[in-house]
Amino acid sequence: MRKFLILFVGAVVLLQAHNLAGKIGMGLGFSPDTYLQGSAWGFPVIDIAVTKIGLKPALALEPILQFTYTGDGASGVYFALSGLANFLMKGHSKTNIYGKLGLGFLIDTRPTDTEFGFTLPFGFGLEHFVSEHFSINLAAMSGFTYISNPPPTYSGDNFEFRLGNEKPFAFYLLWYY
């Protein structure tokens, strides 16, 4: 009976939602491309660095750095820096569901051209706490992207507007201290 009581109390302690106010989490993950780049699919590589700063129980700030090197004959680097506000929509047990909204900057360099742009990302995120200091995160993002220098096209456009991000999905692990 005593072992059952200890197990029950331990389970109740683990089931409470985590309050991120005053906590800082850092981690790495990956975000696959929308389109297949290169000749074959490979294993996911780390291409996203995330920091999450808890400002209030229902609000967290999340700076994200995304980077990709493409070596498919037209080598280049995709670099995006975004700042997202996470608004807690539903907190249940050890899982939090967030609405995300932010602002970002991107640069995509290729041997023949370079794209610069600004993004207004938005979407949803799911964060599940495995322990008090470790969480698994999944984010589904979309947004508006303004590109100031797209690749040359037959019409000679200088500006491009996109709905959706090149990297709309992200999976990352965070460690809180």
Strand order of the largest sheet: 1-2-3-4-5-6-7-9
What low-confidence regions span 5 or more consecutive residues with pLDDT below 50? 7-16, 36-42
As for the number of domains, it is 1
What does the largest sheet look like?
Answer: 8 strands, antiparallel, barrel
Tally of separate helices: 1
In terms of DSSP E residues, the strand content is over 45%
What does this structure look like?
This protein has about 180 residues and is mainly beta. The protein has one domain (about 1-35, about 45-175): Beta Barrel (Porin). Helices cover about 10% and strands about 60% of the residues. The chain has one helix and nine strands; from the N terminus they run H-E-E-E-E-E-E-E-E-E. An eight-stranded antiparallel β-barrel has the order 1-2-3-4-5-6-7-9. A hairpin with a 5-residue loop joins strand 3 and strand 4. The longest helix is centred in the N-terminal third of the chain and has 14 residues, at about 1-15. The relative contact order is 0.19.
Task: Give the arrangement of secondary structure elements.
Blueprint: H1 2-15, E1 24-30, E2 48-56, E3 59-70, E4 76-92, E5 95-109, E6 114-131, E7 134-147, E8 160-163, E9 169-176
Antiparallel strand pairs: 1-2, 1-9, 2-3, 3-4, 4-5, 5-6, 6-7, 7-8, 7-9
